[in-house]
Please model this.
Amino acid sequence: MAHEVLTVGQVRIHTDGATQEQAMKEAADILEAAGAVTSAYYDAMQQREQTVSTYMGNELAIPHGTNETKDTILDSALSVVRYDGGVDWGGEPVTFVIGIAGKGGEHLEILSQIAILFSEEDDVEKLKSASTPEELYDLLASVNES
Model:
C-alpha cells in the first residue's frame, strides 16, 4: 500500500460503552473524516451486519460494507475504537471496533494483519492496557506494513 491505512488520529479510547449502532457510526465517521469513505458507508456497514455478524471473537468486531457498496469506498483506511465499557455486538462482548475500508483487494491484506494482532489473548490484553490513543496506535501500527 502506498500510504498508511491507520494514523493516530483514527484511534480512540472511550472509558464507557456504546450500543452496536453507536459504535458502527463512530467507526464509519472516523473513516469518512479520513477521506476513505462517503457518508453512505455507515448504511453499507448496516447492510453487511444484517447479512452476517462482523463479530470476530477475542472482543473484536470489524464492521465493513458489502461488495455491492464498494462505490462508497474512496481509499483504504482503518478506524480503531476501544470501548472500555464494552459493546453488546449481537449478544457477543466487544471491546474493540475496527472499521475497515479497503480499496480493490487491499481489505484482505489489512484483515489478515488485524487477525494476527488479535489472535492471541495476551496480545488483546496488551491492547486493552494501552492508556492513550498513541500507545494503542503504536501497538497496532504494523497494519501499515502490509
Summary: Residues 8 and 134 are 6 Å apart (CA to CA). DSSP finds five helices and five strands in the chain. The first strand starts at residue 11 and ends at 14. The longest helix spans residues 20-33.
